Amino acid sequence: MNISASKVFLAAAIVVTIMMTAAGLYLQEQRNKLAIEKAAVEQTIAAAKQQQTSLGHVNSSAEKSTADAQQITQSLNKAVDASRQYQQELSERGKRDKALSEAVMISQEVKMATAEYFQSEGKWPVNQLAIGMPPAERYKNETLRSVSIEPFGQSLRIRIKFISPQSSTGSLEQQLHYLGNTSEAGRISWACVSPDIKDIAELLPTCKYQPT
To answer: Mean pLDDT highest for which of 20-34, 91-105, 131-145?
Structure first.
């Protein structure tokens, strides 16, 4: 091989070496870019997952807040309903007490009239007409239905019928009885009973429930 050929071969080898080196550098540069892009993509994916997790926490907190708000609303509604029911019961109790008070008031007048008749005649009147009282239905008003006097064995019974407000039925006719008794000395005593007011002892401690 002459000197000219050797130079050509050497030059070619150098060129090939330079090209391979350049290609290697290019490939390394591309690998670096791909690595950077891959890291960026992975970072984006991680950020997206983190954001998704944060949104999940936010949604969970929002759902919990909504559930808590609904529970509070339900509790408030129950409290309002309970308050309305209590107010209604108080109103009905007031109307019931008023009706019972009117029955007791009229009974005092009738007891006094019958007691005077007994002390004068030595016996009980057979009915209200005997003592100058009007017929039973004449006492009818918004609350009272009737007031009557009738024999009750050896005693006397004053029967008072009146309307009592009730939560279940709206209104109900009930009765209050006063039973007159006399001792051997001629003293008059009265017993108060009701045949249909089960809690009469709570409303009138001097009365008792006595179903017929």
So the answer is: 131-145
Q: Tell me how far apart the terminal alpha carbons of the chain are, to the nearest angstrom.
A: 148
| 8-12, 158-162, 208-212: least confident range | 8-12
Contact 163, 173 (CB under 8 A): yes
Specify the 3-state DSSP secondary structure of 192. strand
Host H or E run for residue 52: helix 3-121
* Assigned token pair, 1: 């091989």
Residue 76 in contact with residue 117, Cβ under 8 Å? no
pLDDT of 201 reads 93
Residue 56: both structure tokens together: 């999940």
Tokens for 107? 């009974």
CA-wise closest residue to 95 among 33, 39, 170: 170
Q: How far is it, in rounded angstroms, from Cα 180 to Cα 157?
A: 6
pLDDT classification of 159: cutoffs 50, 70, 90: very high
Q: What is the DSSP letter of 130?
A: G
| Predicted TM-score of the model (pTM) | 0.59
Residue the block writes with tokens 């009592």: 164
All domains of the chain in start order, with CATH: 94-209 (3.30.700.10)
Cβ count near 73 (within 10 Å) = 10
Q: Tell me the Cα Rg of the chain.
A: 52
